[in-house]
């Protein structure tokens, strides 16, 4: 099993190189000459050449990529075209805000989604099952940004209970209050998806013979549920949870736009609109690295729950 | 005439042997017919299908109307602004009310259906073909092939779909076709992964071993046995994929990086409505319901298809 873990850890390196390469290439090939963006159309030939040499743009693309990564590893993502601020500073400034609502959302979806799925499966076709599955169906069908808008209409404009936008970090209470609506909007999809996945995965194991065997041994229903059903149903659930992180990144971009939340997603959207390519590149690469790390953690989790992986690497 | 005992027994045996064949007269049904028969029984799945067919019909009709009338109706009712009636609530004259620039929301919804529908379908079909083929090959052959394909997929999977789409849009600009490319690319790795996983399971079955034993070629085994038996999850994923693509396209338009004004794309309508939430709720609610119903229909259809294709999965 350790071999599996080591293998996975080593595999992350080419993945990271690949991702950064893809992003770098897409963004630097397609967006045209940055020198003109910076200096404008009226700059002289010499001034353009000088800046080009300064930025290292006269060298081959692969060298430029190498330089970019080398600098990035030293904490330098370059400077923004737009307002000359340091990209890394901006990214590190914004990221915790995104992490805040993303962590809140995943926590909410796990804490609510898995129990709802288990109860629905155990009481299949009951009122609880039907109600929660209809709810989940609407949950996966609802765009996060629309959910956000509806929440604002109801809780901010009509009931005037919660702030409609912005992040208030004056005190913990106010921060939590301003987090509530974004977290709910962001978690809707993941929560519904995890609940559905848990239910269907549980239903697959619930009628297996070994469940009857477990019951006939006389252990409690709780033990049967957790040790015999949930453990066997866990792998698809973990996969579903792992897939949610990607959705969360997309969802947080939308949620941050709706609630004017100062996160990294909104930074990306604003930078794309103002054609601030270094800022886009820095934030996208940063998010991709974080996302790869999360994927790695999910994969490592498989080593502990998937007997197939365990046996595959037994004795190695 | 008295038959010999031996002959009588022989005849009785033949009768018994022949009878079940005549009596049952089992009609040979194709996999498609079987699936359709079971699919039809689910009311929710049929609702999904009907709603989607309705949308397809609306999209085609509006395109035809545009061609025939040389966009006259489009220009007069979908694009033309009427400041006097802006933010009007739903009424007999305008069933779903007027938007922030005084355009009929119902007309805009009908004319906007094509964006969600055709753009998402196109991107998913491309993604399914590419991703499905890669996943099947990786899962079936395993080893080095699997490793190479899946590492490339890992690279793409390490980019959340929305982020990949945003990057492509950032590079190519916000043209409609770029959005389709962006969304299509972002779905390839997840389809590859799903099909690979189910192929890995199918591969271990006895019938694959049997096919190998009688000397079937790899191509035949993959296309005749592996893919049909791995299809249930990928079709469900594909239908959900269309739903996701609709969502991604609407999302891109919502943040202003997808379909551009004044086109009546649903996500864009929501984006424009955002600034008028205080004054009128209906312009925020109505387009959202349209998006949700479309995605809901696809989800219902996906569930119905899953149950119909593999009754075993239906607990």
Walk me through this protein's architecture.
The complex is a heterodimer of chains A (316) and B (315). Chain A has one domain: MetI-like fold (Orthogonal Bundle). Chain A is mostly helical and 316 residues long. Chain A is built from 13 helices and no strands. By secondary structure, chain B is mostly helical. The N and C termini of chain B lie far apart (59 Å).
Features:
heterodimer, A: 316 residues, mainly alpha, MetI-like fold, 13 helices, B: 315 residues, 76% helix, flat
Short description:
In chain A, helix 5 (87-122) crosses helix 8 (172-206), helix 5 packs parallel to helix 12 and helix 10 (221-259) runs antiparallel to helix 12 (277-305).
Global outline of chain A: flat
Task: Quote the average pLDDT of chain A.
Answer: 87
Task: Give me the count of strands of chain B.
Answer: 0
**What is the distance, rounded to the nearest whole angstrom, between the alpha carbons of the first and last residues of chain A?**
8 Å
**Topology order of chain A in helix (H) and strand (E) letters:** HHHHHHHHHHHHH
Strand percentage of chain A: under 5%
Put simply, the count of helices of chain B is 12
Please give the domain count of chain A.
Answer: 1
CATH class of the domain at 96-310 in chain B: Mainly Alpha
CATH architecture of chain A, by name, is: Orthogonal Bundle
Structural class computed from helices and strand pairing of chain A: mainly alpha
């Amino acid at each position: 099993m350790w071999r599996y873990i080591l293998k996975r850890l080593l595999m992350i390196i080419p993945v990271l190189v690949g991702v950064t390469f893809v992003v770098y290439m897409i963004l630097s090939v397609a967006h045209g000459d940055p020198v003109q963006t910076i200096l404008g159309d009226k700059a002289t030939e010499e001034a353009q050449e000088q800046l080009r040499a300064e930025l290292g743009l006269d060298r081959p693309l692969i060298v430029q990529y190498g330089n970019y990564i080398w600098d990035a590893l030293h904490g330098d993502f370059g400077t923004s075209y737009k307002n000359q601020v340091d990209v890394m500073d901006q990214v590190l400034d914004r990221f915790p805000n995104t992490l805040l609502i993303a962590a809140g959302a995943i926590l909410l979806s796990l804490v609510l989604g898995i129990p709802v799925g288990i109860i629905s499966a155990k009481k299949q076709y009951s009122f609880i099952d039907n109600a929660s599955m209809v709810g989940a169906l609407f949950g996966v069908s609802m765009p996060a940004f629309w959910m956000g808008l509806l929440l604002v209409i109801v809780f901010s404009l009509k009931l005037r209970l919660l702030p409609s936008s912005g992040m208030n970090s004056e005190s913990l209470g106010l921060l939590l209050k301003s987090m509530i609506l974004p977290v709910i909007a962001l978690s809707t999809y993941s929560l519904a998806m995890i609940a559905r996945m848990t239910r269907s995965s549980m239903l697959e194991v619930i009628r297996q013979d070994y469940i009857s065997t477990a019951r006939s041994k006389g252990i409690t229903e709780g033990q049967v549920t957790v040790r015999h059903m949930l453990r066997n149903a866990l792998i698809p659930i973990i996969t579903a949870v792992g897939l949610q992180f990607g959705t969360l990144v997309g969802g947080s971009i939308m949620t941050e736009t709706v609630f004017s939340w100062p996160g990294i997603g909104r930074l990306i959207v604003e930078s794309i609109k103002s054609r601030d390519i270094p800022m886009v590149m820095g934030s996208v690469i940063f998010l991709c690295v974080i996302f790869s790390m999360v994927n790695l953690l999910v994969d490592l989790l498989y080593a502990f729950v998937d007997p197939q992986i365990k046996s595959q690497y037994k004795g190695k | 005439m008295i038959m010999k005992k031996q002959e009588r027994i022989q005849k009785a045996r033949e009768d018994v042997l022949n009878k079940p064949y005549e009596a049952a007269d089992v009609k040979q049904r194709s996999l498609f017919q079987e699936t359709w028969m079971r699919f039809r029984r689910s009311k929710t799945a049929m609702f999904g299908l009907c709603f989607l067919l309705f949308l397809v019909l609306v999209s085609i009709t509006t395109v035809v109307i545009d061609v025939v009338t040389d966009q006259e109706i489009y220009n007069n009712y979908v694009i033309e602004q009427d400041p006097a009636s802006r933010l009007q609530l739903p009424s007999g004259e305008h069933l779903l009310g007027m938007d922030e620039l005084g355009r009929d929301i119902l007309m805009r919804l009908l004319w906007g259906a094509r964006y969600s529908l055709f753009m998402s379908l196109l991107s998913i079909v491309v993604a399914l073909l590419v991703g499905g083929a890669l996943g099947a090959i990786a899962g079936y052959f395993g080893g080095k092939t699997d490793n190479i394909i899946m590492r490339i997929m890992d690279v793409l999977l390490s980019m959340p779909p929305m982020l990949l789409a945003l990057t492509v849009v950032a590079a190519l600009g916000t043209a409609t076709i770029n959005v389709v490319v962006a969304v299509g690319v972002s779905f390839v790795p997840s389809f590859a992964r799903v099909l690979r996983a189910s192929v890995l399971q199918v591969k271990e079955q006895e019938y694959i071993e049997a096919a190998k034993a009688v000397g079937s070629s790899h191509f035949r085994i993959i296309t005749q046995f592996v893919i049909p038996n791995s299809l249930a999850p990928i079709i469900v994923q594909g239908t959900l994929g269309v739903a996701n693509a609709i969502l991604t396209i609407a999302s891109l338009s919502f943040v202003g990086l997808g379909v551009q004004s004044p086109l009546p794309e649903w996500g864009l309508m929501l984006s424009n409505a955002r600034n008028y939430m205080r004054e009128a709720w209906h312009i925020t609610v109505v387009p959202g319901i349209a998006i949700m119903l479309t995605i809901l229909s696809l989800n219902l259809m996906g569930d119905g298809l899953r149950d119909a294709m593999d009754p075993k999965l239906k607990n």
